[in-house]
Specification:
globular, six-stranded antiparallel beta sheet, alpha+beta, ten-stranded mixed beta sheet, Alpha-Beta Plaits
């Protein structure tokens, strides 16, 4: 049996300290936590930075390092620094060194990096080793060259290699969410289908329980399957909460693809052991005849400036789309005539359909609408210049030329706010490799006081 303690869905989200203490008392074999995902958009991969504050990350990581020392087991994090880029890994390594220095701790640190060289990926594309996933964008040598960061998602094999170094702490770059949980159970001969399925259920901590915010769970892996136990005092796992998590961030609720194969849960059985624990058996791991890792990449697409205006006049609220369309047409024409360049103006209606846009068919306009102007351009200077041209339209533009000039409200002065460089995801592909470690780099560092 292998016990994996998962403190939270991600480092930086917080967790129940009492629940963590209960988990440590149960003597886990490893503590595993995710460091991020693509959920928060391409900025973090594009820049190689974390979405979470350094102070919050350091405070939580310090507590987990102390818990690791108390339990005497390895601590592992995947997708370090939100995006798993090499710079984000280095960021967390630096924090780890700081904490070790402050606490006088001696550590063996394994560092697994997932960053890919642009030219190597261009060569792989030419060799036919990069293939698209469903709905993947078209790629080319130029797009690969433009990527500010490309990462490959490590699987269980790469995490096992890091653990085999005897590391106290493993800091991994981009990994699949399941790899850090499944690696040790698989290495120790637990049921392969159960290892991958339990890892999927546990990837977000207590999200698969009745108390998602409690964070901490324990998963016991064995020769036939796994058992999930929440550590929060009020949290419960039920067959519904556990089985439903296969729907989370997964296009198929029965199949989950991982490096080296896929998980099939169509034959799984979910049994409530009591009112808190769930036992799962019957999951199947299907090996693939080729080993592939998913690639993610982000590239710079421009610079952005945003403005916000508030519209309360009932007539303008009722005709807000006509008003916005007229502003975009007039301001675009003016900007093209006066500054040229490549830019785009978008007016997004806050409080109407800003989230779903044209897909929102059930929105109801209220008494006030926020109009967010978004200008994206080739350069930061051009983005700001066009946003300044948009300013008087958002403040005073009338619905018709035959009426008094209205006045709306800017909540800030100046209303233009620079968002700086804007990135987009441009890879949703898999890379075929002969050896699981071919495109990953593993180093070991011994930290002493």
């Amino acid at each position: 049996m292998v016990k994996v303690l998962i403190p939270s869905g991600a480092l930086g989200l917080g967790y129940d300290r009492e629940a963590l203490a209960r988990g440590i008392a149960l003597q886990p074999d490893i503590i595993a936590i995710d460091g991020g995902s693509t959920d928060s958009g391409p900025h973090y991969l594009g820049t190689g930075t974390s979405k979470y504050s350094r102070s919050s990350t350091k405070a939580e990581w310090r507590e987990l390092m102390a818990a690791r020392a108390q339990a005497g087991v390895p601590l592992i994090i995947g997708t370090a620094g939100t995006c798993g880029a090499d710079d984000a890994v280095d960021w967390l390594v630096e924090i780890t060194r700081e904490i070790a220095s402050e606490t006088g701790e001696t550590l063996r640190l394994a560092i697994l990096k997932s960053g890919q060289d642009n030219q190597a990926m261009i060569a792989a594309l030419g060799e036919g080793r990069i293939t698209p996933l469903p709905a993947a964008p078209d790629i080319s040598d130029a797009i690969l060259a433009d990527c500010t960061n490309i990462v490959a998602l490590a699987g269980a094999e790469q995490i096992q290699a890091a653990l085999d170094t005897g590391a106290d702490i493993v800091i991994a770059g981009r990994t699949t969410d399941t790899a850090i949980i499944s690696a040790l159970p698989l290495a120790r001969g637990c049921h392969a289908g159960g290892a991958w399925h339990g890892a999927k259920i546990g990837e977000c901590g207590a999200l698969a329980t009745t108390s998602p915010n409690s964070g901490t769970i324990m998963i016991d892996f064995d020769a036939d399957g796994f058992t999930m136990t929440p550590m929060g005092s009020q949290a419960r796992a039920t067959p519904h909460t556990v089985s439903a998590h296969m729907l989370y961030e997964n296009s198929d609720p029965h199949i989950l693809f991982e490096p080296g194969g896929h998980l099939d849960v169509r034959g799984s059985t979910y049994t409530a052991i009591d009112d808190r624990q769930v036992r799962v058996t019957g999951s199947k791991w299907v090996p693939s005849d080729r080993y592939t890792v998913k690639l993610e990449g982000a590239r710079l697409v421009g610079y952005q400036t945003v403005s916000l205006a508030l519209v309360r006049d009932a007539r303008y609220v009722a005709n807000i789309r006509t008003w916005c369309d007229d502003i975009m047409e007039k301001c675009t024409a003016k900007a093209k005539a006066r500054v040229g360049g490549t830019f785009d103006i978008e007016l997004r209606l806050i409080g109407v359909d800003a989230t779903l846009g044209a897909l929102d068919t059930s929105h109801v306009a209220g008494t006030e609408v926020g109009v967010m102007g978004i200008v994206t351009a080739q350069t930061e200077a051009l983005s700001r210049e066009v946003a300044k041209m948009l300013n008087p339209y958002l403040l005073h533009h009338p619905l018709t030329e035959q009426e008094e000039m209205p006045t709306f409200a800017f909540p800030f002065s100046p209303p233009e706010m620079s968002r700086g460089a804007i990135h987009e995801f441009c890879l949703n592909h898999v890379l075929e490799i002969d050896n699981p470690m071919n495109v990953f780099r593993l180093t070991v560092e011994d930290i002493t006081p």
